[in-house]
Design brief:
The protein is an alpha+beta fold. It contains three helices and six strands, in the order ααββββαββ. It is rod-shaped and about 95 Å long.
Length: 150
């Protein structure tokens, strides 16, 4: 009879170790999945901000350099050329992104360019783009060479 009891205790100990091992693997898997999801959202946010930056730079440079292309008098007009975007105060916002243009006297002294500024082309030094996806926001800063208004 004593052997039967010890076999039962031994099997319970083995099952306890197996259960602890399974729970450990499950916890590691869930943590790993969350980490992968956060990394994916961060990457998509960065790519989104980069795409917005490229689209805006194309509108500023390529279309500006084209003789027949439209010329944006202010940031309100530039925002109107972007799908679903609007300019409020000094920030162009669209679905999942926000863009702020800056005029910099030097590396440490920058100020926002307002939406209605008609000298924004000559004043702009950089823009900051915030891309958001899945609750994660990534930022990109891009230096811009000021262009003269045609």
């Amino acid at each position: 009879m004593k052997l039967r009891g010890s076999a039962l205790v031994f099997s319970l100990v083995v099952l306890s170790f197996l259960l602890m091992s399974a729970l450990s693997v499950a916890t590691i898997s869930v943590t790993n999945k969350r980490s992968i999801l956060a990394s994916k959202n961060s990457t998509i946010s960065f790519q989104f901000a980069d795409t917005v930056a490229e689209n805006i730079l194309t509108k500023i440079y390529k279309i500006h350099d084209s003789v027949a292309g439209p010329h944006y008098a202010d940031l309100d007009a530039l925002a109107g050329a972007l799908t679903g975007a609007a300019c409020d105060n000094s920030v162009i916002t669209g679905t999942g992104y926000a863009v702020t243009f800056y005029s910099c006297a030097d590396a440490d002294t920058c100020s926002d360019i307002t939406c209605s500024s008609n000298t924004w082309r000559a004043d702009v030094s950089k823009m900051k783009i915030l891309g958001t996806f899945g609750g994660v926001t990534r930022a990109i800063e891009v230096g811009i060479t000021p262009a003269t208004t045609p």
